[in-house]
Amino acid sequence: MPAPPPDDIPIPGPEGQRDLDRYAEDSLDSGLAVAQTQLYVSAVEVGGEGRRRGKGLGLGAWLAIGWLTFIVAVSVLAQLGILPLKSPTESFSECARLGPFAKEGTAPGHLLGCDSNGRDMIARMAYGGWSSLVVATGAVLFGLVFGGILGLLAGFFGGKIDAVITSVFNVFLAIPAVVLALALVAFLQGAASSGSGGDNVDPKLLLILAIGIVSVPLLGRITRASALTWSQREFVLAARAQGAKPMRIMVREVLPNVVPAMMSIALLAIAIAIVAEGTLSILGVGVRPPTPSWGNIIGLDRGRIKESPHIVFLPAILIFFTVLSLNFLGDVVRAKLDVRESAV
Amino acid sequence: MLLLVTFFTFSLVRLLPGDPTETIIPFGTDQQRAQLSKDLGLDKPFLQQYVNYLGVPVLKSEGTSGLLQGELGRKYATNQPVSDLLNQSLPISLQLVIYAQFLALAIAIPLGVLAAYRSGTRTDRAINTTAFAFLAIPNFVLALVLSYFVGARLKWLPTAGYQPGWLDQFFDPDRGSMIFSGWEDNHIRYMILPVITLAVGQIAIYMRLLRSDMIATLQENFITMAKAKGVPNRRILFRHALRPSSLTLLTVAGLNIGTLIGGAIVVEVIFGIPGLGTQIAVAISAREYVELQSYILVLAFLFVMINFVVDFLYIVLDPRIRRARAAA
Amino acid sequence: MTQPASAPTVSTAGPSEPLLQVEDLRTHFETPRGIVRAVDGVSFTLARGKTLGVVGESGSGKTVLSRSIMGLLPKRGTIREGSVRFDGTEITELSPKEMRDFWGARMSMIFQDPMTSLNPVMKIGKQITESIRQHLDVDKKYANELGENLLRSVRIPEPEQRLKEYPHQLSGGMRQRVCIAVALACGPALLFADEPTTALDVTVQAQVLDLMATQQRERFMAIVLITHDLGVVAGRADEIAVMYAGRIVEKAPTSVLFSDMKMPYTEALLSSIPKIEHPSHTRLNTIPGRPPNLVTPPQGCKFAPRCTYVQPRCLEEDPPLMPGTQPGHEYRCWFPVGTPEGAEALARNRADQAVTGGAA
Ligand SMILES: Nc1ncnc2c1ncn2[C@@H]1O[C@H](COP(=O)(O)OP(=O)(O)OP(=O)(O)O)[C@@H](O)[C@H]1O
Ligand SMILES: [Mg+2]
Predict the structure, then answer these.
(1) C31 in ligand 1 pocket by Cβ < 6 Å?
(2) How far is ligand 2, taken at its centre, from the CA of residue A118, in Å?
(3) Tally of domains in chain B
(4) Any idea which architecture A60-343 has in CATH?
(5) Of A111, B292, C79, C173, which residue is 20 to 30 A from C12 by alpha carbon distance?
């Protein structure tokens, strides 16, 4: 640590004092809820702190939106067959393992080179983007729906329902997410193959389910906290006092207020799910080859990183910028909606 | 809590597809399989299997021993006790995670304090932006980048393998410690890249957490009071403000150890380290349920233990909680 | 961490120069709403061993004034102008690092709220000796003894025991005594007491104030006693400054102020002194209306919108500080209390009110 600069410790006026006692208790309460660190951190602390609120989006946000639009557009258009791309599964032996910076030079027509089987990298990354995005978005939707419902029920009704749901969440949270996802994929794969007697279930669906299930307790806890806060607001209490049906209050009064908190977390959750798909691919249980995904392009050829680094690094760069953009937008959205305390 | 976890993992693992007897005797007859099933207790009703697994003294079947007897089961394929495998792999992962945790905290705390102290300035923004970028690098990407550049290109450090450290010998007396040996096969040399990989993401998280809590603490009256006493800034930051600001950090850092071990899987696989993560990955692909179940259980147990430790540290950090506890 | 004790600065001040001389001090905050003029041109002097009472409603800028004089406000977002001479040194130009030799050692402060001004996770002893070890060149053991003696002198029973305790183990009154002990630790020449008793029980209030008075006598210390309650300063201050909207609107020796107040605001404050039966920390707001907006203050006299003596002139022209009949008395008013003009103005307003009241 460098010597403190000759500036000054900021000391504000009498306003804005914080009750430390309350704070310490809060931290204790949050206990297990913080198991998922990344979600927690971004929910608690937002780099911008009001700076971004109110004003326009700012350059960073536009760059992030631009990048995401580009990625989504390319993946979707590739999948629809509109883009003039090579097949992601066709091998071009003249180009195998050659990257854009290879000494021999890449084969003509393959701008970013090919993977170890001679499949065109551009095509693989475009089609791979589709797989990665579908898995990530699908998983988060799954998590939002089920985590949302459970969290809402727990937060709104409290009591026994809350106790049961929360302890189920806690059991899930006690198992590291990656381990749980791995076990779930193995389980689902087997169940699918023994159930329908074949491999006709899309492996992407299995991944969506596995990652989705892992995300349920994480998103569920956040929803629960938010629902809990909103359920104690005056207008909800008033509606209760007027004898409105609880389910109706929950759906009409509490849900609409909880949704913004969840949406701002959703962007971040998608980022985490993209990484999760990558991790599972590296461990050999991601999207099944020859269908490409960003993760399995890396996973398949990570052993050849020394000779052909581009096969690993190109999709890695895509993942990095996509995750970065999603994180950044998530922060901006949270700052705009100011859901800091209700999300935790 | 632990009981719930055991039941949950047990159910999940028992419901996993594939017949374990196939793993053990791949070419056996149906009759042999049935016999084996019986020997393993796999033909019993589900709940009885669970009770056996736990080893509840009164309810268990004759001649079995379970978790309560400290029996973690055996690997189907080789009949190796799972506890042996654990003794070899767990200390490796623990060391990895402990180093990563210490490295992360050692870097994150001064950075977080500095960022809070200079909040709103260029320094703060630079630290924050860097942290934000690091947060977006997945572990596996960083692992590959480091192993490629530092390992394969610069050849400074090994990209695969492991040498035992100080912790291994307590779990497995056959292993020596390679922590003081020559640099070529030194424990630390093999740990540097994996540890950095694991630590980088944590640094960003911890730093941002500490920064925001610290900013809040610096607004407290007692900080103004310390300043009015003429206490130097550095002392105000580290002696007065850091401790009350570190409760959230502590919670997250503590609970993260469990998550980190899970996150270590991919790092261990990429760096070829035979830790718990690698074992789990192998166990899943080999359909070694009992083994997998024991690993998950150990992780859950760790998680719960760490919760206790975190609670205890709270008490150390904040005397007011001490009193609240005593009153309760 | 201990620095060498500050070399005793040779006082360049002659015996006649006051300990503290504040001249046209302004402290403005840059906020999103605009510039908040929290202190707007305050001047006064304070001699050694004397007490200045600063009285004003909540939000009149008392806390900002004291922190601004001590230089405790953050640099960023704060505009500070004017001059503060302490013991012959112009301290507005000093860096925080240089100020550290003044803070705690030669000038110190007791804060409004004893509940939050002690570090909750640091033992009392540490918090007291910290200042001693910072400024005086003494070892740990001796500092501890000094700390114990300090606690004894602020009448905390079982001081040895208390040194090892945490703030939450003490009552509010005890905590404020600890704060006083901390402030007195290095024998400062000047003590700012920012509403030291507002957060305390009535019975404890008098004890704490008496304690401060005793210490002042023993140490020949000057005190700036800040309060919103004229009753508190009545018997204790040598001189009283009444603040309103960041300015001193009336200043006089205590006896003069009470016998011959000129400002309608002072009069209104006096009538709002809490009665014994009211717990004094419930803030009485017997002056109708609210303090003015400090971002866009009204033209003319800042108190005019709430004043019972108000005349058209008050709304247009800002009254300057005018000398009173007795020495040391100053006030800002066009129609002062107890003068023929004032009486006439009041009578006119009463009549108008009766007319409009009757018409309505
Ligand atoms: N850091 C700051 N930024 C902006 N405005 C401030 C700041 N500190 C104080 N103020 C404003 O300055 C004005 C004077 O505040 P101050 O705390 O000095 O009042 P006070 O007389 O001490 O009141 P009280 O009796 O409640 O303590 C208030 O309007 C307050 O809102
Ligand atoms: Mg004040």
Answers:
(1) yes
(2) 75
(3) 2
(4) Orthogonal Bundle (1.10)
(5) C79
